[in-house]
Design a protein that fits this description.
single chain, 306 residues, alpha/beta, Metallo-beta-lactamase, Chain A, seven-stranded mixed sheet, six-stranded mixed sheet, 19% strand, binds zinc ion
């Protein structure tokens, strides 16, 4: 697939991984200073060719690529890390302390993903290979890591997953939010919280939002999808309000004894109706965060709380 690039600053480029042949669903962010390169997010294994073509189309030879950062280890963000580690034996993969062991030994991660995706696993995500343990670098909250042209600061930001970091680049003012910044399509005034099982934690997520708001970023770089500038408080408000409201809606359904399938159906109807009212297209949002996962995540969260 021909690479689709969005140049964000002189040295930062968003690469559209064209997941499932769709534009604007999954992004990876390339830093390149003319000498060395780093990526935030690898995307899934199935789009690794598109990723590497994008890196080269942005001007960076593959030998320049030294550092791979993943906001968290879900397959749409980090699934290609092992393939890249094998193909480019000089790269290091930077990850959250809770996620790092699962990059080196993905067996539990794969078992957990297989519960969600069943026999669709390979078709959806492609192969998942382990990253040699000695090439996984554990990043802790507050760590500052030199990358080409700048320094990234890590923010431990649980809520979507326990093993989640956001990365702030002080030079550009851009904050790379992974999934804790929600899903928002370019041009849309609508932020969807992706709330999959098994680690959704509403309270932790709300605290992470407060923390990231306080960063006073000049723009948010969402993995799903792209750079948003302008009124970022509006973005955080919209995400937080929906995250909490959907949680309450699912809790009420459970209290009335609704089945998971009924809850999915009713939540989907309600969500689609709201998006239609606002003139927001649903398809790209549905690929990034499906109703089934959204509801299952909340149901699991409330059952754990009991
Ligand atoms: Zn994601």
């Amino acid at each position: 697939m021909a690479p689709i690039l969005h140049q964000l600053t002189e040295n930062i480029t968003a690469i559209d991984l064209q997941f499932q042949g769709r534009t604007q669903v999954v992004a990876a962010y390339l830093f390149y200073d003319g000498d060395q390169a780093a990526l935030i997010e690898t995307g899934p294994g199935i789009t690794v060719e598109t990723l590497l073509e994008g890196v080269q189309a942005a001007g960076a030879p593959l030998e320049a690529l030294r550092q791979l950062f993943v906001t968290h280890i879900h397959l749409d963000h980090a699934g290609a890390a092992g393939i890249l580690a094998r193909q480019l034996p000089w790269v290091r993969v930077y990850a959250h302390p809770v996620g790092a062991p699962h990059l080196a030994d993905p067996s539990k991660l794969l078992a957990s993903a297989a519960r969600l995706y069943g026999d669709q696993m390979d078709a959806l995500w492609g192969r998942v290979l382990p990253v040699p343990a000695e090439r996984v670098v554990v990043v802790n909250d507050g760590d500052e890591i030199k990358i080409p042209g700048t320094t990234l600061r890590a923010f431990d930001t649980p809520g979507h997953a326990r093993h989640h970091h956001a990365y702030f680049d002080a030079a550009s003012g851009l904050l790379f939010t992974g999934d804790v910044g929600g899903v928002r399509m370019p041009g849309a005034r609508y932020v969807r919280p992706p709330t999959p099982p098994p680690e959704l934690d509403i309270d932790a997520w709300v605290a992470s939002i407060a923390r990231l708001r306080a960063v006073k970023a000049s723009g948010l770089c969402l993995t799903h999808f792209g750079l948003f500038r302008g009124n970022l408080d509006w973005h955080w408000d919209d995400l937080e309000r929906r995250l909490v409201a959907w949680g309450e809606a699912v809790r009420e359904e459970l209290a009335h004894g609704a089945s998971d399938d009924e809850i999915v159906r009713r939540m989907q109807n309600q969500i689609v109706a709201e998006m239609e009212r606002r003139g927001v297209g649903v398809e790209a949002y549905d690929v990034a965060a499906s109703y089934q996962h959204i509801v299952t995540g909340y149901v699991r969260y409330w059952n754990k709380k009991k």
